[in-house]
């Protein structure tokens, strides 16, 4: 399985995301923001950082990168896409996910290990978890406060599209403690904390982040098994 | 030269922590009669020819403002020098 990791000018965590995908067992393809060719990848990770210097709004300019135009089309067609931190902001700016990420309520940059409760496990990126599982993953953001109107928030909850919530303290004031959400189809997930920083004992607080990457490999293996079975009928 | 000015503001229902921080600092200046401060962004666009308001609106809607959290207004300023005065 080939997972593409996009590098924008100002991406910081593309290397870690690529490493995490590799540790999970994927072949990693590095994608460049200026190249609309997705090189046949089976899934895409939009990494954390400060694409285009966070100018205007976080993710606002990255959303118009040539690579993003292709990714937006492919995501609408079912391509699994995970946006981490700045990647989550880009997915919201691209309207692949509802709502927006705004300045942390207390205005401080927060950098700490954060407990989350995984709730929606029916997505391409969270199926390796059990619903209600608590995981420890680093969070580091200045603009991670998730906001959406009440109707959107209610719909996210009713449809089981809240993938993870902050527990034992909300680091940024996100509404309803939302840390990660998915689209209606479950192939696009945005998460503010950094699972790619929790994949090795040497550098991470846990190995809990690996589950997001093994999830997509499972989802892709299931999809291709289904496609093969279909082909033999 | 005519320029198009786009003002972008957070929607009223969206919390503006920057504005709150400024409001909270005002008592240190001896100001005690301000009830609210909200911070927005002003963008000046100069077109090569005549100002194109439809284009400006498209730019504002697609890029300059995020309609999920922000509103914008568009105005044409005919004389940039007059503004400074």
TrEMBL record, chain B:
Which is one GO molecular function term here? phosphoribosylformylglycinamidine synthase activity
Q: Which SUPFAM superfamilies does the record associate with it?
A: PurS-like (SSF82697)
- The enzyme's E.C. designation: 6.3.5.3
The pathway noted for it is: Purine metabolism; IMP biosynthesis via de novo pathway; 5-amino-1-(5-phospho-D-ribosyl)imidazole from N(2)-formyl-N(1)-(5-phospho-D-ribosyl)glycinamide: step 1/2
Q: Where is this chain's protein located in or outside the cell?
A: Cytoplasm
Identify the keywords attached in UniProt to this record, alphabetized. Answer: ATP-binding, Cytoplasm, Ligase, Nucleotide-binding, Purine biosynthesis
Can the keyword Membrane be found in this entry's annotation?
A: no
Tell me, in one coarse class, where this protein mainly resides: cytoplasm
Top-level class of the enzyme under EC nomenclature: ligase
Query: Which reactions does this protein catalyse?
Result: N(2)-formyl-N(1)-(5-phospho-beta-D-ribosyl)glycinamide + L-glutamine + ATP + H2O = 2-formamido-N(1)-(5-O-phospho-beta-D-ribosyl)acetamidine + L-glutamate + ADP + phosphate + H(+)
Identify the Pfam families for this entry. PurS
Extract the coiled-coil ranges from the record: none
**Protein function:** Part of the phosphoribosylformylglycinamidine synthase complex involved in the purines biosynthetic pathway. Catalyzes the ATP-dependent conversion of formylglycinamide ribonucleotide (FGAR) and glutamine to yield formylglycinamidine ribonucleotide (FGAM) and glutamate. The FGAM synthase complex is composed of three subunits. PurQ produces an ammonia molecule by converting glutamine to glutamate. PurL transfers the ammonia molecule to FGAR to form FGAM in an ATP-dependent manner.
- Protein family per UniProt: Belongs to the PurS family.
Q: How does it assemble?
A: Part of the FGAM synthase complex composed of 1 PurL, 1 PurQ and 2 PurS subunits.
UniProt-recorded name of the protein: Phosphoribosylformylglycinamidine synthase subunit PurS
Query: What organism does the record attribute this protein to?
Result: Paractinoplanes pyxinae
Tell me the gene name: purS
